[in-house]
Amino acid sequence: MTTLAVVKKKGQIAIAADTLTKWGTTKESATYIANHEKIIRVGDSHIAITGTTTFNLILRDYFASLEAPPRLDSVQTIFRTWQELHAAMKERYFLNPAEDKEDDLESSRIHVLIANPHGIFGVGAHRTVQEFSRFYAYGAGSEYAMGALWASYDNPKLDAHALARLAIECAIEFDDSTGAPITSYVLKEARR
Q: According to the lineage, what is the superkingdom (predicted)?
């Protein structure tokens, strides 16, 4: 399973993720899985991925196959990129988009958080893109991560990086599908 967090505070942007995967009830920790990283680099963006581990491989392969990294600097450019990615997931990677017959749109079956100098963003399974103003979390332990972020965000001693890591630490403490170690990245927000 997965817990991801992004934070923007005082010109700093951070993204963090746990490293635990599970196969049924079996925990596959970073001690035993060498390719445990859930955050990938695409141009000037860091993308943290939820969903089955295969989605990590798919996104790495898809973005590596592009002639140039896509622009992920606004809600609209991310949406366009995800529309193209969804088509490729169905055609090249054999995505089974069926989830619920009542859904209005096909599901990509993943949620991602994106951090780059332009902001912090989330993309839902139905390709809904949101830009977050302060912080957000996705995944199994997201309710714990969000609670930690809400309670700690205004603490002047904690910068964006410390907050993102704190969110994942809280999820590790209370969610059995979230595990250490934590990976995290920090960057400066671009001036607008």
A: Bacteria
